Q: What sequence folds into this?
C-alpha cells in the first residue's frame, strides 16, 4: 500500500484516537497549505464543509489522490478522482523572492496566509522557507513578478521519504509540519481580526468625536444666530424711535 496514503490515514486516525471532532480528524488529513483551491478560505473551512456534507472530498489538489483516499477511508466514503476544476497536484514548493527586483511594496505580506514573509514597506522582502506552505497566493499580487516557486528539498527532507525512515517517524514529521502551518494560519487570522477590530474601534471613536464637534458647532451657530437676531431687533427698535 502507498506509504503516503498510510501516513495521511494515520494522521486522521491519530486525531480520532485523541478524541478530536470529525472536523478535527478531517483537518488533520488536509495539507494545511491554506491555498483556497478547494474554494474555501483555508483547510479548516473545507474540513467543516466536508463534515457537514456540503463539499466533496476531492477538491484539494495539494492533498492529491492519496489525501482523497485517506479521507474516503477515514469517513467510510467512496474514493473519487481529484476534481481537476480545482487545480492539479504539484510537488511541494516554496516561494523565493528575487531581491534585486523586489520593490518592497508589501502586497505579498498582506496575502500570505501563514505570515511567511519578513520585510516592511520599501524594504526588500524575504520568505522564511520553513514557514512557506507553497500556496501560490503571493504570486498574482506581485507587481514586478519577482516571486518564483521552487521545489522544496527542505520540506521533503523534513517529511523524509528515505527508505529506512519508519512510517511512524514520517507521520510524526508530517504532523509537525502541518501543526506548524495550522497554528500560523490561526494566528494570522486572529491578527487580521484584531487589526480589523482596532480599525473599527478607531473609526467609531472618530465618528463620535466628529458628531460631538458638529453638535457643538451647531449649538454655537444657534447662539450666534440668536445674538444677530437680538442686534437686528434692537436696530429696528432704535430706527422706530
Ligand atoms: S490545502 Fe488548499 S485546497 Fe487543500 S484543503 Fe487546504 S486550502 Fe483547501
Ligand atoms: S510565501 Fe507565498 S507561497 Fe509561501 S505561504 Fe506565503 S503566500 Fe503562500
Ligand atoms: S509583492 Fe513582490 S515587489 Fe512587492 S514586496 Fe512582495 S516580492 Fe517585493
A:
Amino acid at each position: 500500500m502507498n506509504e503516503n496514503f498510510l501516513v495521511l490515514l494515520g494522521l486522521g486516525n491519530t486525531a480520532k484516537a485523541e478524541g478530536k471532532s470529525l472536523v478535527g480528524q478531517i483537518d488533520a488529513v488536509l495539507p494545511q497549505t491554506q491555498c483556497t483551491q478547494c474554494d474555501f478560505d483555508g483547510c479548516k473551512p473545507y474540513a467543516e464543509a466536508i463534515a457537514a456534507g456540503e463539499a466533496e472530498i476531492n477538491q484539494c489538489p495539494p492533498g492529491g489522490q492519496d489525501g482523497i483516499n485517506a479521507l474516503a477511508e477515514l469517513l467510510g466514503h467512496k474514493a473519487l478522482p481529484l476534481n481537476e476544476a480545482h487545480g492539479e497536484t504539484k510537488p511541494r514548493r516554496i516561494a523565493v523572492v528575487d531581491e534585486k527586483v523586489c520593490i518592497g511594496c508589501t502586497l505579498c505580506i498582506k496575502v500570505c496566509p501563514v505570515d511567511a514573509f519578513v520585510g516592511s514597506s520599501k524594504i526588500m522582502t524575504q520568505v522564511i522557507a520553513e514557514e512557506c506552505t507553497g500556496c501560490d497566493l503571493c504570486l498574482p499580487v506581485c507587481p514586478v513578478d519577482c516571486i518564483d516557486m521552487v521545489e522544496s528539498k527542505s520540506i521533503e527532507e523534513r517529511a523524509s521519504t528515505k527508505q529506512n525512515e519508519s512510517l511512524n517517524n514520517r507521520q510524526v514529521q508530517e504532523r509537525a509540519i502541518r501543526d506548524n502551518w495550522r497554528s500560523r494560519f490561526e494566528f494570522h487570522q486572529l491578527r487580521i481580526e484584531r487589526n480589523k477590530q482596532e480599525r473599527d474601534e478607531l473609526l467609531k471613536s472618530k465618528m463620535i468625536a466628529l458628531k460631538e464637534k458638529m453638535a457643538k458647532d451647531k449649538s454655537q451657530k444657534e447662539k450666534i444666530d440668536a445674538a444677530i437676531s437680538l442686534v437686528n431687533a434692537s436696530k429696528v427698535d432704535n430706527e422706530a424711535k
